[in-house]
Every structure is written in C-alpha cells, then in structure tokens.
Amino acid sequence: MPEKTKKEFQRKTITFCNGTSCMQKGSIDLKNLLRLELEKRGLTEDDVRINISGCLGMCDKGPLMIVNPGYTIYANLKEEDIPIIFKEHIEGDRPVAEFVTDADHLYNRFFRVFGDVGFFGKQMRIALRNCGIIDPESIDDYLSLRGYEALAKVLTEMSPDEVISAVTSSGLRGRGGAGFPTGLKWKFTREAEGIEKYVICNADEGDPGAFMDRSAIEGDPHTVIEGMIIGAYAIGSSKGLIYIRAEYPLAIKRLESAIKAARENGMLGKNILGSDFCFDIEIKLGAGAFVCGEETALIHSIEGSRGMPRPRPPFPSVSGLFGCPTLINNVETWANIPVIIVDGPEWFSSVGTEKSKGTKVFAVAGKVNNTGLVEVPMGTTLREIVYDICGGIPDDKKFKAVQTGGPSGGCLPEKYLDTKIDYESLAAAGSIMGSGGMIVIDEDSCMVGISKFFLEFTQSESCGKCTPCREGTKRMLEILTRITEGKGVEGDIQKLERLGNMIKKASLCGLGQSAPNPVLSTIKNFREEYEEHIRDKRCRAGECKDLLVYEITDKCVGCTACKKVCPTAAITGDAKKMHVIDPEKCVKCGKCFEICKFGAITRS
Amino acid sequence: MRTPLETIRKKRAEAISRIVGKGYLSTKRVYVGMATCEIAAGSDEVMKVFQDAIKGGLSGVYLSQKGCAGRCNLEPTVEVVETGKIPVKYGKIDPVRAKEIIEKHLKRGEVIKEWVIK
C-alpha cells in the first residue's frame, strides 16, 4: 500500500475516554503509544487529531477509544492492540472488527457529529442526547434513534413495579434542584390512593439566565413526552399535563406538534401501541410567575387559583392536582427516563458520583469565553466547566466567583473551584445544584451588587403569602440598596445575616427558604467587600455608581470635551486650562470619564 | 397481534426508510439551528437562504432544522454532514456566509475553514 499523504490523515480524529476508570486502566499510556506511532511515521497531531473525552459511561469496557469519522468505538484495549489499529484502521481505513464494541447506547450519539469540538470534550449528553442533531419536529428522526423504544419495552415486558425499581436503582434524582430521589417519588405516587392520578411535567423555568428546559424541549420534545408516558404507566395515571410558561412560544409549538405526532402514531391516547394502557397529555400555559415553579403553587395555577404555595405535607404524591395523587418531575428528569429504561439502570448509575448519578445540564453564562449549554457527568469539577469546557475568563481577567443555582443558590469563590458537582458537595460548599443556572463572575463585578440583583428578583417574585418572605426580602433589599449607595452603617452585615437566616427558617416554600442564599453566601465568602462598601464607601469593582469619585488630574489639557458632556454642569474650567469637578453637583454618570481622550479623569 | 416492542421496531424501520428516501445517506445533510436562541441570532434568515437555494435548483442536499447544541456564543450554527466524513460545524453564519457555504461547500466540496467551530 502506498504511504498516505499527510492530507489524507487529517480526516481522522481519535478520542480517548479519560474517565477515572479508563485512566486507571491505562488510557493515557494508550494515548502516548498512539503518539509514538504517529512520530514513527513523521506525523504530528495536526495530521491525526488526538482528543480526550470525559467518561463515556462504558467503564466495564474500558479503556475506550473512538475513531472518527464513522464513530467506531474500540473497547477493552490493550497496548499491543494500538499498532494493529493504527495500521489497519487509521492508515488503511479498515476498522479492526475484533476490538470494536457493538454497544449501541442512546447517549453520546451527539458526539458522532460534535466529537471533535473541544467545547464538548468533557461533556456527556444523556438528557440532551438528541438536541442539536435531529429535527425536533420530525417524529421519524426521533424514532430512527431508538425513540419510543423505552416505552415499548416497558409496555411489553415490565410491570409498573419493575419500572419503579429500575428508576430507583438508577439513582436518578430530581433535576429541578432539590434532588429528591425520583424512584421514591414514583413509588409514593403509585402507592397513594385516588380516583385519578396525574402526571405533570414542570417546564416553568424561571431562573434569570437559565434555559436548559427550553433547549431540551425545543431540541427534542419527544424525549420528554416518552418519559412522561413511562411515568404514567408506572404510577397508573391516564392524564398528563405539561406546565410551560407562555414566554416560550417555540417550545410550546414544538410540544404541540410532537404530541400530535405521538397521538397519530399511537403513542398517546387509547390503547397505547396496542396495549391496554391509555394516557394523554395536555399543555397548560403559565403566566411567568417564578413561584409557579414550586410544585404546590404550580398545582394551584393549573387548578385556576392564584399561584401560591401551600405547606407540605401532604406532598403532591399523596394529594396534588384536584386532591389526587400527582407525580411532578422537571423536564430534565423526564428526559433521562428513556435512557434508564433502554440502556439499563446499572449503566446509568455507573455515571456520576456515589450519591448523585447521571449528568446535569448547566446553562453557563457570564464572564466566560464560551457561554452555552453544558451537560456534564456528576462529579465534574467547577474548574473543569469554567476553564476546560468554557474556555476560562475573557481578556485575562481574574476569576472571582461562580454562582450556581440562580436566585436560590450561592456564590462560590476560587477556593471552591475544585468542588465536584453533585448535590451534596455543592451544598457543603454553601451553594446548591439548583435547576442548572451557572453564572461566572470576574473581578469587574461587585459581589454586593450581584447579591442585590438576585434579591431584587426574588423580592419582586415573592407571592406575598407568608410574612418572612414578603417582608423579610423587602427589608434585606433595603439594606443592600443603602450599602450600594454608600449609606451603609455598622451592623448592617449582622442585620442581613440575622434576617437572612430567619427568612430561610420561617418561609413557607422553597422561594423564601432559598432567597437569602446569594446574600448569605457572598457575605460568607466576600465579607471584606461588604465592609469596604460600609466603612470606606468604596466599591473595588467600580460597579456601585454612587460610591465612585471622579477627579481630573493634571493630564488635563483643557479641551472642554468633558465640560460639554456633563449633564449637570459640574465641570468648570477655561479652555486650555485644567478643569475641575464639583463633587456636590456630580451625579456620577461617568460621561466625562468615557469622553476624555487624555486619560485625565480618574475614577475611584 | 404484535407486542408494543414489535410495533415500535416496525415504526422505526418505516421511519428510517422514509428518512433514507429523502436522501439521508446519499446527500450532503445541512442542519440549521432553529431554537429560540438561534432564531434570535438570525438563523431563520440563514434557513431561508438554504430553502431558496433548493427551490432554485440546488440538488443533493438534505435540509433539516435542529435544536440548540449549546454553543450560544457561536450562533447561528450550521452543520454539513456527509456519510463517511467528519461533520463540518460552522459558527456565526449569516445569510451572506450561508450563500458562500452553498457555493463553496455544497456545490464544490470546499470546506470554509475560517468559520469552522473548533
């Protein structure tokens, strides 16, 4: 065979699974061996790309190696196999059948298309497995990727109890944020008695900056529907509802078209796929109140009442919609169900940490180079998300904090960057998993301002039913506002802490119980910033406008540009002479600072 | 009577044959991101460029929409997938770039490297 030109090699990308298990089994040695093979032939990684990936979830088959194009998965590799594969497959385009595994899992099909993009390298796609690779409005696309096979399997060969025990043993926990074991919830709802039982999908995604559920529904609506039908079968329900906010028109449209297609194909309605099981789904639109993401408020909203929470117990699994046992799960939780059924709970529970199984989707926003939707196995560290996946902080700025869990979560400073993502570790660090919002904050952001931003949100979204949340968040916001305006007094921090802890303990629902978290966690981790605001009337990030002092230095050439732009005529001075700012008149709009071409105006 | 599993296997086979019938294997498949975020970034105009090109006689192309892959800062995204080749992922595609993809990549098979997502 004639030697290949460099150009022809360029078409191949080799990915080694770099999960803990594969690493222990020597995946790094294999990678180095492959490099040696390249070197022997005078090739570099520009000719054949060598990548690593996060855990591919087939730990029992490790070490793993994937060759693209073609998405050939080699399993149980040994050092002596590498030269053979190189010669036969990479040089000769003949995959070596005896090392290829035939595992056809649902997950990671995504990587057949996106496997060579660095951003996706440490990700693992289970809930979002089809998002971005299929036409969401084509049921054929979904069916072709083993869609509705989980449902058919359940209806053909599993009893409801077997389904529940599969979900239980998978270790799946609620992805809405609280992390309640899903299987247990299903079991309670199955055991509860009622004339009817309901299944609800909670798609009332309200965290500022979060869009996991919207993307999941817009990218692959059938997965959510399939998960719900399986849940209905397991608990014995015939009626399902998807509660989705009206601000998501495209997601609603795709859900409607998916429900219609599922009905036409016999996956919804009477005698599903020829079985005795009957179930249908209806869409309910929410008006966008944040509190309606809380399950009891959501149920009230569907019933036609005002969306307000009520004390639990009784939990919805016992007494939910119209007093009937109701199974409520979040979009992402439902999207995981078909994978658990088809690929098996053992496989699912092989991904993740001891107490948190599977993956979690995060919407990463803020000061990172690559913002986007990230699905990582539980146990991935925050550092890996911020630096390896999202490419670090732009403009070489310094990392300051990462905020997880949206308005209910906390801010974690640099020392927590190596925290593993799972429910317990994040809680121990002082934040929460939440539904998956993740905001990266750099040195240019004021932590007092950030906590004020989140509290403004929760305060205005408080439903007003219970006093601690209604009045307490208002008072906290007043204190925060005065701190950012330079009117903070000694003792404010202690007041915030006392109020915050009181609201956490005394509020009725999750909204109030978690609303003080951004404030308390920033006080805990960035107390000195609060103290600077109060004592020195100084904001180190320069974000609190009222604390800024503008001054003109002797670099001023007297061009009068600042004088002209000042809206309150606070700047005086003759042309070609140094100008002066009158601090009494200055409203700190910053216009002079922006317009000065000589760097003569300082802001501190 | 068929079991649900047999029914779904039959449905899958039918679905696959319909997709293949539309040219899934034999053509260049073009996926345009059409989630809310992508549309907000202008992907509907990009989609229209491809649709118009097909109406205007561009052949050998299987055009499909897709959901959001998660690359927010590079949207709108377009993928060109061909059986046996590494899929080409383009980022930040506007109508002008879409026309160039049609001319260079779809008609002549030249990958436009500067726009490829790495």
CATH topology value of chain B: Glutaredoxin
Helical residues, percent of chain A? 25-40%
Uncertain spans of chain A: none
Average residue-wise pLDDT of chain A: 90
Q: Unreliable runs of chain B, pLDDT <50, ≥5 residues?
A: none
What does the model show?
The complex is a heterodimer of chains A (604) and B (118). With 604 residues, chain A is an alpha/beta fold. Chain A has four domains: 6-103, Glutaredoxin, CATH 3.40.30.10; 139-347, NADH-ubiquinone oxidoreductase 51kDa subunit (Rossmann fold, 3-Layer(aba) Sandwich), CATH 3.40.50.11540; 447-536, NADH-ubiquinone oxidoreductase 51kDa subunit, iron-sulphur binding domain (de novo design (two linked rop proteins), Up-down Bundle); 548-603, Alpha-Beta Plaits. Helix content of chain A is 39%, strand content 14%. Chain A is built from 25 helices and 17 strands. In chain A, the strands form five sheets. A five-stranded mixed β-sheet of chain A has the order 10-9-13-11-12. A four-stranded mixed β-sheet of chain A has the order 2-1-3-4, with helices on one face. Chain A has a four-stranded parallel β-sheet with strand order 7-6-5-8, sandwiched between helices. The model of chain A has no long low-confidence stretch (mean pLDDT 90). Chain B has 118 residues and is an alpha+beta fold. Chain B has a single domain (26-115), classed as Glutaredoxin, CATH 3.40.30.10. Helix content of chain B is 42%, strand content 16%. Chain B contains four helices and four strands. Chain B has a four-stranded mixed β-sheet with strand order 2-1-3-4, covered by helices on one side. The termini of chain B are far apart. Chains A and B meet through helix 5, helix 6, helix 7, helix 10 and strand 10 of A and helix 1, helix 2 and strand 2 of B.
